[in-house]
């Protein structure tokens, strides 16, 4: 018995469609009563098709190859997609993404669009793989005459670099237009080797057009195979390059990376001065010949021996050890953490018309909430935290001092920020208190009435408020006062809780 259990059919008070197909009528048998007239009803093929179409559109419509491939790729992509949102609308990303839509406006990810674009791309990428296969055959010496011909052309280009301007046009002529002409004007089937190619006469065949590979065809799956292999080759090359370069350049070993940086910058400066003195034609000629000769099968067999592989590994280890010893001898890194000083302003408030009232603690704010600050002019309330303990160091930093220190140089920070309309205490608790101007209050109220509903005030309105403060004497202290507290912070080293 099979362990699989079939799903039960649930009756939801809906009729179950049943189709019955019978053969041609047999007159030797008595009619079977199936209706009121006592005659049996036969279902023709056309009526069977109509019956199936009435049951559902999918029963009578066979899926096209494009729809099948579309569903195939959609299922494939949906199985590998992550569950989180891939859009760029996440606020304040921690790592700057140069592929974000903030830099270039491109369509968002869409599974149907991805499936359709992949099928279109795979149908048209065959020419790239043809070029790849020809390059592999050329540099692996499958046909030595072609490889030698390439070396001759490369030699001419290295000797006379101006031939680079002719090379694309020559490739277009000999690899595109000549084959297209041969398709339109094929040679006669029987001719002597000494006969000239017939150039006259009407075209004998249709012009060749490049068309995408039909979906689910042999060429389509060949492109998929080559694309699969190309992805594997790129992944291997990518991992090999990163495994070689990343430990040297990512400053995981800061002394080693610093040594390499000094070597590279010195080499760059030397080449900037003396690059025109180097024989670049000879250098490129030797490099091209060496790369082409290394692709010969005999040379590859010699290089792939275990002894040579062990020799290359030893030479690489010796080079790295030499850089390490050089970095340890000449590079001395600063290990003390970077220190800074952060500030917080203690704000106190009292009612404006309560001249004899006491100031009450309000909050600790990162800004002094000066009389001419944009938030103050706009009528916004100060922002901050009511307790010292809630003030946190910046991200990636930690406190280097045990407690906050009152800034005794209150006049200096007031002058540095060009704060006006305040009274500064140079002794005592160092409060910087607002000064209330009666005419200023009238001017600001009229300005706000005139600009009601138009957003923030302009620079000319701020200049009016500034002149009012400079030209009139205060009547009493204002409703806000503040003083500055400072505290030292230092960078958190990697591995001690800092954000990577």
UniProtKB/TrEMBL annotation:
Membrane is among the record's keywords: yes
Question: In terms of domain of life, where is this protein from?
Answer: Eukaryota
Where are stretches of biased composition, namely Polar residues? 34-43
GO BP field = peroxisome organization
Ranges of compositional bias, category Basic and acidic residues: 455-478
Which Gene Ontology terms of cellular component type are present? peroxisomal membrane
- Give the membrane topology, semicolon-separated if more than one: Multi-pass membrane protein
Coiled-coil residue windows: none
Q: Where is the TECPR1-like DysF domain?
A: 109-487
Q: Which UniProt keywords apply?
A: Membrane, Transmembrane, Transmembrane helix
Renumbered residue ranges of the record's region Disordered: 1-63, 83-102, 442-479
Concerning PANTHER family, the annotation shows: PEROXISOMAL MEMBRANE PROTEIN PEX29 (PTHR28304)
Protein name, entry field: Pex24p-domain-containing protein
Tell me which species this is from.
Answer: Trematosphaeria pertusa
């Amino acid at each position: 018995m099979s362990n699989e259990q079939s799903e039960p059919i649930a009756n939801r008070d809906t009729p179950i469609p049943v189709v019955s197909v019978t053969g041609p009528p047999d007159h030797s048998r008595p009619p079977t009563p199936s209706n009121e007239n006592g005659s049996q009803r036969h279902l023709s093929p056309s009526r069977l098709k109509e019956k199936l179409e009435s049951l559902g559109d999918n029963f009578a419509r066979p899926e096209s190859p494009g729809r099948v491939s579309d569903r195939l790729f959609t299922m494939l992509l949906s199985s590998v997609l992550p569950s989180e949102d891939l859009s760029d609308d996440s606020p304040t990303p921690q790592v700057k993404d140069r592929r974000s839509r903030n830099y270039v406006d491109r369509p968002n990810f869409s599974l149907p669009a991805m499936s359709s674009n992949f099928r279109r791309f795979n149908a048209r990428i065959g020419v790239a793989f043809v070029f790849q296969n020809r390059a592999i055959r050329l540099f692996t010496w499958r046909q030595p005459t072609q490889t030698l011909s390439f070396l001759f052309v490369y030699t001419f280009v290295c000797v006379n670099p101006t031939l680079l301007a002719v090379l694309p046009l020559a490739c277009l002529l000999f690899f595109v237009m000549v084959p297209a002409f041969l398709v339109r004007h094929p040679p006669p089937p029987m001719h002597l080797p000494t006969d000239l190619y017939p150039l006259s006469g009407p075209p004998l065949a249709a012009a060749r057009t490049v068309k995408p590979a039909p979906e689910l065809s042999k060429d389509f799956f060949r492109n998929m195979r080559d694309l699969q292999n190309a992805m594997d080759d790129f992944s291997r090359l990518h991992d090999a390059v990163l495994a070689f370069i990343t430990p040297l350049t990512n400053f995981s070993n800061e002394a080693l990376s610093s040594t390499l940086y000094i070597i590279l910058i010195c080499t760059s400066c030397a080449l900037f001065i003396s690059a025109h003195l180097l024989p670049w034609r000879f250098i490129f000629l030797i490099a091209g010949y060496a790369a082409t000769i290394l692709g010969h099968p005999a040379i590859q067999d010699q290089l792939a021996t275990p002894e040579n592989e062990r020799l290359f590994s030893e030479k690489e280890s010796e080079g790295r050890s030499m850089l390490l010893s050089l970095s340890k001898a000449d590079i001395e890194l600063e290990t003390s953490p970077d220190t800074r000083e952060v500030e917080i302003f203690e704000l106190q408030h009292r009612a404006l018309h309560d001249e004899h009232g006491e100031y009450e603690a309000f909050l600790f704010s990162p800004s002094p909430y000066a009389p001419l600050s944009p938030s103050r002019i706009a009528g916004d309330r100060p922002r901050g935290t009511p307790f010292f303990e809630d003030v946190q160091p910046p991200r990636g930093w930690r406190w280097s001092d045990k407690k906050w220190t009152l800034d005794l140089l209150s006049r200096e920070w007031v002058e540095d920020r060009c704060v006006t309309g305040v009274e500064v205490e140079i002794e005592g608790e160092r409060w910087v208190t607002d000064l209330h101007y009666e005419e200023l209050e009238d001017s600001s109220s009229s300005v706000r009435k005139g600009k009601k509903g138009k957003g923030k005030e302009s620079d000319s309105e701020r200049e009016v408020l500034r002149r009012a403060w400079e030209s009139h004497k205060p009547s009493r202290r204002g409703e806000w006062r503040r003083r500055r507290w400072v505290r030292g912070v230092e960078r958190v080293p990697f591995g001690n809780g800092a954000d990577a």
